[in-house]
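Narrative summary of target 7.
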Amino acid sequence: MARTVGMTACLPGYEHINRFLDRVHGKTMAKILPGGFYVIQQLEVIVTVLGSCVSACIRDRKRGIVVGM
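Modeled conformation, tokenized:
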């Protein structure tokens, strides 16, 4: 998928994640579907679609990554 101007680059292996630029907030957003996960190293917003599912956001300060699932 081609990167939209103004969006941050995603890590290799996560190109299939639906990512978009929220022009109101000026942030790159990544939509995580049930059962999915996503890893970032730059400032992004992780959006989930939840019903009765559980989501988590885990941050590793030493490695500088955040995982959303």
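Residues 40 and 57 are 11 Å apart (CA to CA).
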